[in-house]
């Protein structure tokens, strides 16, 4: 989106504000499907934890995506958005058997990642198809919080516990229809990913009635000019060749599945905030905005970088600023960042704000969550209203003291 378009949206709906570009989501989806165009049965399941607004879910359903969910609430959101149960995979971690049974009763694909629940579920529901999430013990990810395939991860069943998996399957006679892995987000080395894929192929040979292999996701997107990203085209060529060869070896057609979240929506998102104050100290120039880590926590949580543009004066002289929020705690979005000269009242645009931004927002300091807008076909559509004080009070119960 252009600066003038973002400014017009900010003027119409106010700040702080999340804006999502539908065309970018569509182009990212097309880029991934084109990279695997030679795979006859390709399934892209959008990881909705990245951004779960109903209008975004409906957009992805319209362009052909399935849905990857991690909670019973996300399953129900997907069904509410119009996804059929067979287009939803449910991959929780550390949840109760009751929640998994509830998801199964809704008809979605179940994906189990621990031996205890696998045995309990298989004993009670041997005829319900189940996917198994393995941990390949392959490290990937740009931050320890988003690397989930290593040996100390809480996610997945260790590949070294395969004999235990096979014993449970044999004893319960349960139906295993898929094998899944996810190494982590921000994959940088395609060869490491392909190495993990080989582990998945070897594991799959132990199960004779599979319908799909799920390779997770974690494709890295660029956060700044010249930043590295996952070469999905190269990965598509290499993994397609290996997948088609395995399919022949396996003796039946299989679906190749992925679960991209950030890859589909990160670059489509913009977070707009208004500058409340420009504060000069003895060593720093602060640009204080009408937001904080209550709205965008990733820089503070992961150390992630979001490119910041002054869209009010995009061609001004560049100066160095530390962009900070209004939360009563340190909430620094950027330190000594080069940005065109900022004045009070200017609108700053944070890029790559589509994934894990609004979905991780909170009411810390009793602040309202921002509104969300979908930019589609040159028009801005409000898809979530800005919260009000009534939302802060909702669900609270006042008692006599």
From TrEMBL:
The active site lies at: 328 (proton donor)
**GO BP annotation list:** lysine biosynthetic process via diaminopimelate
Protein function: Specifically catalyzes the decarboxylation of meso-diaminopimelate (meso-DAP) to L-lysine.
**Residues annotated as domain Orn/DAP/Arg decarboxylase 2 C-terminal:** 18-354
Q: Which domain of life is it from?
A: Bacteria
Please name the HAMAP family in this protein's record.
LysA
The name this protein carries in UniProt is Diaminopimelate decarboxylase
Q: Where is the PTM N6-(pyridoxal phosphate)lysine found along the chain?
A: 49
Q: Does the keyword Amino-acid biosynthesis apply?
A: yes
What is the catalytic activity of this protein? meso-2,6-diaminopimelate + H(+) = L-lysine + CO2
The UniProt record gives the binding positions of substrate as 298, 302, 329, 356
UniProt GO MF annotations = diaminopimelate decarboxylase activity; pyridoxal phosphate binding
Cofactor(s) the record lists: pyridoxal 5'-phosphate
What family does the database annotate?
Answer: Belongs to the Orn/Lys/Arg decarboxylase class-II family. LysA subfamily.
| Sorted UniProt keywords | Amino-acid biosynthesis, Decarboxylase, Lyase, Lysine biosynthesis, Pyridoxal phosphate
Residue ranges of every copy of the Orn/DAP/Arg decarboxylase 2 N-terminal domain listed in the record = 23-266
InterPro entries in the record, alphabetically? Answer: Ala_racemase/Decarboxylase_C, DAP_deCOOHase_LysA, De-COase2_C, De-COase2_N, De-COase2_pyr-phos_BS, Orn/DAP/Arg_de-COase, PLP-binding_barrel
Pathway, per record: Amino-acid biosynthesis; L-lysine biosynthesis via DAP pathway; L-lysine from DL-2,6-diaminopimelate: step 1/1
Q: Tell me which species this is from.
A: Flavobacterium enshiense DK69
* Gene from which this protein is expressed: lysA
Q: How does it assemble?
A: Homodimer.
Q: Where is pyridoxal 5'-phosphate annotated to bind?
A: 218, 356
List its EC numbers.
4.1.1.20
């Amino acid at each position: 989106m252009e600066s003038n378009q973002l400014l017009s949206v900010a003027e119409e709906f106010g700040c702080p504000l999340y804006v999502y570009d539908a065309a970018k989501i569509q182009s990212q989806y097309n880029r991934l499907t084109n990279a695997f165009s030679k795979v006859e049965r390709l399934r892209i399941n959008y990881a909705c934890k990245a951004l779960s607004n109903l209008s975004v879910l409906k957009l992805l359903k319209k362009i052909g995506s399935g849905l990857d969910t991690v909670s019973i609430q996300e399953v129900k959101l997907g069904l509410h958005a119009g996804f059929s149960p067979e287009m939803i995979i449910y991959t929780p971690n550390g949840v109760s058997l009751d929640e998994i049974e509830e998801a199964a009763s809704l008809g979605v694909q179940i994906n189990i990642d621990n031996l205890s629940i696998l045995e309990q579920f298989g004993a009670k529901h041997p005829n319900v198809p189940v996917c198994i999430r393995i941990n390949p013990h392959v490290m990937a990810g740009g931050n320890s919080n988003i690397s989930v395939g290593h040996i100390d991860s809480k996610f997945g069943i260790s590949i070294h516990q395969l004999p235990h998996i096979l014993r449970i399957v044999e004893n319960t006679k349960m139906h295993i229809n898929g094998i899944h892995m996810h190494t982590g987000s921000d994959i940088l080395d395609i060869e490491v990913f392909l190495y993990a894929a080989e582990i998945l192929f070897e594991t799959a040979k132990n199960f004779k009635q599979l319908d799909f292999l799920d390779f997770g996701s974690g494709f890295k997107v660029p956060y700044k000019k010249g930043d590295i990203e996952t070469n999905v085209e190269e990965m598509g060529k290499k993994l397609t060749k290996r997948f088609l060869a395995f399919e022949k070896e396996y003796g039946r057609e299989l679906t190749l599945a992925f679960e991209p979240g950030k890859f589909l929506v990160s670059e489509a998102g913009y977070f707009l905030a208004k500058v409340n104050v420009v504060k000069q100290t003895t060593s720093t120039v602060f640009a204080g905005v009408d937001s904080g880590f209550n709205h965008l926590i990733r820089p503070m949580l992961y150390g992630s970088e979001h490119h910041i543009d002054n869209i009010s004066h995009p061609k001004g002289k560049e100066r160095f600023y530390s962009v900070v929020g209004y939360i009563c705690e340190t909430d620094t979005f950027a330190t000594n960042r080069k940005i065109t000269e900022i004045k009070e009242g200017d609108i700053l645009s944070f890029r790559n704000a589509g994934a894990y931004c609004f979905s991780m927002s909170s009411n810390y300091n009793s602040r309202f969550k921002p509104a969300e807008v979908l930019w589609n076909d040159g028009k801005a559509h409000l898809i979530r209203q800005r919260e009000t004080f009534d939302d802060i009070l909702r669900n609270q119960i006042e008692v006599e003291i």
